[in-house]
Structure formats: structure tokens, C-alpha cells
# Entry
Amino acid sequence: MEEPFMLLTLAGILLGARLSGRLSAWMGLPPVFGELMFGLMLGPAGLGWLHPSAELKAVALLGVLLLMFMAGLETNAQALRKVGGGAIGAALGGVLAPFFGAMLFGALVGLPWPQMLFLGAALTATSVSLSVQTLREMGHHQTRAGITILGAAILDDVLGMGVLALATGLSGIGQPLVSVLKMGLFLGVAFLIGRRFIPMAARWIARHHPDERGLALVLALTLGMSGAAEAWGGVAAITGAYLTGLFLAGTSLEEQALRGARTLGDGLLIPVFFVAVGLEAPIPALEALSSFGLALLTLAVLSKWLGSGLGACLGGLSAREAFQVGAGMVSRGEVALVIATLGWDAGWISPQLYTSLILVIMGTTLLAPLLLRLAFVETQLPLRRRSVEVGKAGE
# Structure
């Protein structure tokens, strides 16, 4: 993409994202839903005016990494430990229910064994970035349910990669034991470095770069951990970004890093990411609107929602909180797309199943903000009433 066109494209995306987000909020929907729909309307599945480019994908990648970094910074580690049982239960339920649901679905429709495995692996994935932004916009990212969603989604990423390693190994195109060992080794080293090195680095940055220039070093830490997570750990890069923020939380650098990340992320990178997600929707997603595709979409939503919700409930959360956690785990995303593409390239996934998985990814992406709004609406209304009452009392 030529430089002038790239700059004009970014200008149009930022303006359109802001307007569509405001329109979505005016309609009572999360602003991120408007940004997704704006990208979908402009992209190949809509008007076809704009197509994803390498430059745009790079900006979008920085956006999602910054979003997950902020999520880690805003996560209370003590609160995360308190909901640890709920997060583990939600992650396990959110993997087991979709996987075995996919296996049963595949058996009923007569899918071959390798296709059933890849279908199960794809349905276990969770795209946490969309839920994080929706929760931030609604002000629920630091509630028990919000923190549980974050913890469960990170665990879900690790478990999902383990299921993928199993699927590729049983299909003869991978080594599952090697993949699992890589993940375990990386996570062990990451926690060791994170607990020891990152707080030391934070103190040094806060002492020598107490201004905006310190943000560059913070971003270098985030990008380094993200790249290591994907290259050496075999997990999504967003896991590394989240862990970096989590380890920086509570240090002397927290406020400075969060202020800079919010300015750069909310002002530029994060809106571009969500518009780019809409742009990525291919035309085959519309071609998959068949009884098979819709049945698979229904299975994907219900299995993740019910599985994660039940696991969270068994882990100690209330029924309402478990309902909210289940809604926050519904969205699939880049991990599911990677799994589907891997199966397609290896010849283990049929054209019908591939296009149906694209429908599942886009359908759950669009549904997730709406489901989260629905799940939290009962808790939002009392908050609004209290704020009104406080305002009246002040008069």
C-alpha cells in the first residue's frame, strides 16, 4: 500500500470508528460493536472498498497487544487469586464442552475423524480481546466476573493450544508432546522472569525515564514478551502482552505505563484493530449460511457459554457471575482462524467445514458484545439508579 493511501486509509478508519462507536453507544450497544460493523461494511464481505494490507495488519497487531497489556495492568493480582478457582473451572469447562460437543456433532453429521479433531480444537479457542474492550467500555473489567473472564481466557489459550497439538499429532502433522513441553517451559520461564526481572526493570525505568519516553521501554518489554510467547512458547502473542501488564501492575511504573498506553491505544491503535477485525471477514462467511453452518454456530455459542458458565459456578462464582463469564468466553478469533487454516492447508478440513468455521468466527465475534451487554444489563441498571439517586441527593 502506497504511503499517501495508507495515511488516508488510517484517517478514514479512525474517523469512521469514532462515529460508528458513538452511533452504537447511542443505540445502547457497546461502541466496539459499531467499530466491528464499520469494518465489516467496508471490507470484502460488505462493500469491498477496503481490503486488509500488511501495514494495516501490523497496526492492528500493535492495537490488540496494547489492549491486552492494559488488561494485565488493570488486573488486581490479589483479586485474580481469589477467583482462581472460578477461572480454572471456566477455562476447563470452556474447553471440554466445545471439544466433546464438536466430536458429537461431527459423529452425527458423519465427519471423518481428522475433521472432528480440528473442529473440536477450533471451537475450544476464545478471543479475549473483544470481551476485554467491551468490559472496559461498560466499566465491568475489574468486577469478579470480569477478572474471571480474563484469567479463564488466558488459561483457555494454553489449553486450546494443547488440544491443537493433540489434534495435529493424531492427524500425523505435528508432535503434540513437543508442543506441550514448549508451552510449559515458556510459561515457567515467563513467570520466573516476570516476578523477578520486570519489577526491577520497572523501578529503573521509573527512576531514569519518569516522562513519556519511558513508554518506549515499556512497549519494548511488551513486544519482547509477546514475540517470545508466540515464537518459543507456542501460545498467542496476546498472552505475553497480558503477562507483561500483570507483572507491571503494582510497581512504581504502573500509573505512568497505563496513562501512556491508554493515550496511544484508545486514541489510535485499538480502534484500528477492531475495524481490521471486521475487514478480515471473507465472503465465504456469507456463503456458509446454511443449516450446517447455523447449527455449528449455535453449537459454538451454547457449548462455550454453558461450559464456561458451569465451570465458573463450580469454581465458586454465583449463578449471575457464571452467566456473565460464559457470555464473555463466547467469542472466537485469531486462534480459531489459525486452527481452521492449518487444517485447511493440511487437507484435513473440507470446504464446507472451513467456510462454516469462518461463519462461527465472525458470528461469535459480532455476538459477543451483544451477549455481554445482555449478561451485565441487570447489574448496570441498579448502578444507574444509584448514580441518579446520588445526583439528586447532591442537588
Observations:
- The chain has one domain: 3-376.
- The two ends are 56 Å apart (CA to CA).
